[in-house]
Amino acid sequence: MKTGKILLVGFGPGAIEEMTYRARTAIAQADVVIGYSTYIKLVQDLLDGKEVIRKGMTEEIDRCVEAYEHALRGKTVALISSGDIGVYGMAGPTYEVLFQAGWTPDSAIKVEVISGATALNACAALVGAPLTHDFCSISLSDLLTPWTTIAKRLEAAARADFVMGLYNPKSGRRTQQIVEAQRILLLHRSPETPVAIVKSAYRRRQAIQITTLAHMADCEIGMLCTVLIGNSSTFIRNGLMITPRGYANKYDSLTGLAKDGEQAGRSLTMGLIGWHGCVREYLRENPDATLRDTAKHFDTSLAEILTAIAKQPTNAMQACYIGLEQINQVLQAAANWQLLRAVVRSHGAVAEILLEAKNLTQRGTWLNLVNDHCHLHVDKQQIAKAWFFSDGDKQHGVYFMDAHGAGVFSLLLVKTDGVFTHTALQAFQQAWQQFGQPSELTDELETETVVENE
Ligand SMILES: C[S@@+](CC[C@H](N)C(=O)[O-])C[C@H]1O[C@@H](n2cnc3c(N)ncnc32)[C@H](O)[C@@H]1O
Fold first, then answer.
1. Which of 109, 142, 177, 212 falls 20 to 30 Å from 249 in CA-CA distance?
2. What whole-number percentage of the chain has pLDDT above 90?
């Protein structure tokens, strides 16, 4: 008996011309073709002389089982899916069924995944060039995925300024998911963000709507649509949706020459190696900017701003990293800093407490900050890193951060009669000398440039 084979074929968005040559030959090679009935119709012209098995919308696992059964009987089976079979398609479920049946890649039955253009690519091509920068796809179908997971991904992608492709945006029963998605995205994106809704790309009833995030949910949307949402630089011109590649960050649009400070083929000054330098330049140009203002300006964490200062003092600002192992010792040393201002931040609330340094005590994993009127307790387990920080005669203290670089709390020295007391300052500087660590990245790295391989 002939050895069976399973070909997992993505045939692209719909039109035969959009199918890859390999997908076409795979279907031609098959004895049996299995697929959702609508997909079978789309490739009807290629099915002469083949056994064709049409399945309904909810019979996905049946399709996999049947493909395996036919392969066991020595047939070459093409299991077909629109777009790319590995993108919200049948490739994953087929492997799951096969593994459950004891199949391994060394088994006699060979399995091949044949990729195709997914809806995201096909729809993007019809509306211009919306995916020219970082993008992601999110399915709004909550049939198999908890809504909280989908909501978390929408939030993260919106916050990170990804261009997004929303698959399965709406169906007869799932009408509110797109409304809720719009609400979440508007927390981070402008209402004017360009949106393209593409229905049935490369199929008979193809239709395109160009709109904005503010109006997205009012548009006609269904299961045959993919919704493309731009990032903060995506624009619409002459009906086309374009996301810039980033050349304007480096080159003058009129002359084509690299802008001041930038070099062709090298990382941007705001690239990995250079961007801390930009932070310091910003601080020099904005001497009144606080650490928090600066973090907000660069849309980054306080820890990154302190790292930039730690590498090179700026104005009167100096910072020094404290390793996790040294944090307990620094807290003990703080008992000698006389009067302290402790600032604790949590989810938008800020608590400030003035206390005698000796009233800073530790019990188990808790740090207790106590004065006559108030007790504050900080879970030390939240602290992952810390920095000494000094700003001339304005501020001296320690910032304690969580693993993401967000502030957990800070301990700042307090002035008496407008000046820091000599003994407190001396004790603080001693702790800095004793427990401060050199910056993680050296200045040598800072000046190094990176040649791109593009
Ligand atoms: C279960 S997913 C299948 C995705 C498919 N495997 C792919 O790679 O495109 C079905 C969703 O894909 C999108 N889709 C598939 N084909 C499309 C087309 N021709 N035009 C627009 N959207 C399409 C729609 O969002 C639809 O709800």
1. 212
2. 83
